[in-house]
């Protein structure tokens, strides 16, 4: 703890500044869903603050019982494990704290200490093992990935008659897309991957996926290990250098975008951070006319603004849509060059491709959004009960627009939200087909030019 207090000045401020005003107590979705008082954000902080007082304050050292200071016992460590893994690091509570105390950072510090003393979480550690050994969270090896992409190209061609490509390891492409590996074959994730491919095709931009960087997700953030987080991020820098791309675009994944937007610069030098030779080489290589990195929603939005994409919005008329702001995007990052761009841009993309859109109620969207309940390393069946309970506030807000506006589609820009909601919405009486990606909507409405020879073949076979 002493080491972390020295490294992160914010942590010491968070330990000292709380006045126990109670403004954060009912703001956490896990507290709302479980009614467990230890899930109040201030109580979650107190698990660490009591130990901080014992070792780092005068009163705590000499009069521990008077100031609620306590030693870090085995029993207390068990509580740390339980409650730091019942926090998705979503930062909602910090929005309401008059001092801006960020429980997510306290949780991250708690997990870092747990990791250091050898108390790890099986789910996130296994995922990191797969990432380091095979290259992505799902453990999908390069040849399997190649087969999957070829299969998708065939599916798109059969459905549209357009030879949309999903290139892998194409050297000299303009854009390298880094996306969560769930996009390669999980439903509904894959529908968004098809959407990205169609956007690149329609805009005539050469792009590629990378077998080395076949995972945008970075669970290093969840296990509280800077080394793991950096190692995971470095694969992306290496792939960008190997392939010689000019731009790096990140697919629909909330925490991946938070890591990319907020940490890649100092972790890897993507975005004017690193001072080492490879960082500088990458900065020279990347096109300064575009943000590095860029979110896929920013990318598509820019093309829409330039009039480079054509849509038939009526193709989405069977859908009445609402949008869930992913917590990591809403409160851990930004998009575009306007304040609040991360709220505006995905909604503008949806409105450009669909006619029927309604927001959920104020206080549950934008910076006040609720986490899906499965973020921060909780997306494991072992934690199903807390995941279902943690989804409660989002499900209540969703239910309101389902009742009032007949909404039948919850649009997302996060792989974890997609996996979480498809699993938990049945507990709330909804069908998992109501869950999908923003680029799934783009894929439905985008108009692609059918090559003449395909069109002629189709006419001939109709005859
Ligand atoms: S899950 Fe979110 S709202 Fe709850 S304590 Fe953690 S950061 Fe705060
Ligand atoms: S809102 Fe801030 S100051 Fe008030 S109890 Fe919560 S963390 Fe402490």
Automatic annotation (TrEMBL):
Residues 9-38 form the 4Fe-4S ferredoxin-type domain. This is Hdr menaquinol oxidoreductase iron-sulfur subunit. It comes from Sulfurimicrobium lacus. Pfam families: CCG, Fer4_8. The keyword Transferase does not apply. InterPro entries: 4Fe4S_Fe-S-bd, 4Fe4S_Fe_S_CS, Cys_rich_dom, Helical_ferredxn. One of its GO terms (molecular function) is 4 iron, 4 sulfur cluster binding. Keywords: 4Fe-4S, Electron transport, Iron, Iron-sulfur, Metal-binding, Transport.
């Amino acid at each position: 703890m002493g080491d972390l207090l020295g490294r992160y000045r914010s942590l010491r401020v968070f330990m000292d500044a709380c006045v126990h005003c109670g403004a954060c107590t009912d703001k956490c979705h896990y507290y709302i869903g479980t009614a467990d008082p230890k899930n109040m954000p201030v109580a979650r902080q107190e698990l660490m603050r009591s130990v901080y007082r014992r070792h780092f304050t005068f009163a705590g050292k000499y009069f521990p019982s008077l100031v609620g200071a306590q030693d870090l016992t085995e029993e207390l460590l068990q509580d740390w494990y339980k409650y730091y893994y019942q926090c998705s690091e979503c930062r909602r509570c910090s929005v309401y704290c008059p001092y801006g105390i960020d429980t997510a950072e306290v949780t991250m510090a708690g997990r870092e200490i747990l990791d250091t003393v050898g108390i790890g979480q099986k789910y996130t550690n296994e995922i990191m093992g797969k990432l380091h050994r095979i290259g992505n969270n799902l453990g999908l090896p390069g040849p399997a990935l190649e087969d999957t992409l070829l299969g998708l190209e065939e599916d798109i061609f059969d459905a549209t008659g357009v030879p949309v490509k999903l290139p892998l390891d194409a050297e000299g492409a303009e854009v390298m897309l880094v996306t969560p590996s769930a996009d390669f074959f999980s439903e509904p994730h894959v529908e968004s991957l098809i959407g990205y491919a169609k956007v690149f095709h329609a805009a005539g931009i050469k792009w590629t996926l990378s077998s080395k960087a076949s995972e945008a997700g970075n669970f290093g953030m969840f296990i509280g290990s800077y080394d793991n987080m950096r190692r995971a991020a470095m694969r992306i820098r290496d792939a960008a250098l190997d392939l010689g791309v000019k731009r790096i675009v990140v697919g629909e994944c909330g925490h991946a975008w938070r890591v990319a937007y907020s940490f890649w610069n100092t972790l890897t030098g993507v975005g004017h951070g690193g001072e080492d030779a490879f960082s500088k080489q990458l900065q020279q290589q990347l096109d300064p006319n575009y943000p590095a990195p860029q979110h896929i929603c920013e990318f598509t939005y820019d093309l829409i603004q330039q009039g480079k994409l054509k849509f038939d919005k009526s193709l989405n008329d069977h859908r009445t849509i609402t949008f869930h702001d992913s917590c990591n995007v809403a409160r851990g990052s930004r998009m575009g060059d306007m304040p609040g761009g991360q709220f505006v841009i995905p909604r503008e993309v949806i409105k450009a491709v669909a006619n029927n859109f309604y927001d959920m109620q104020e206080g549950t969207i934008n910076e006040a959004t609720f986490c899906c309940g499965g973020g921060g390393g909780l997306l494991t069946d072992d934690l199903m009960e807390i995941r279902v309970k943690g989804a409660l506030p989002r499900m209540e807000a969703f239910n309101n627009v389902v009742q009032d506006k007949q909404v039948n589609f919850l649009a997302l820009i996060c792989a974890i939200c997609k996996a979480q909601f498809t699993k938990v919405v049945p507990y709330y009486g909804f069908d998992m087909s109501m869950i999908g990606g923003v680029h799934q909507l783009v894929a439905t409405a985008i108009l692609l030019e059918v090559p003449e020879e395909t069109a002629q073949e189709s006419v001939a076979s109709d005859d």
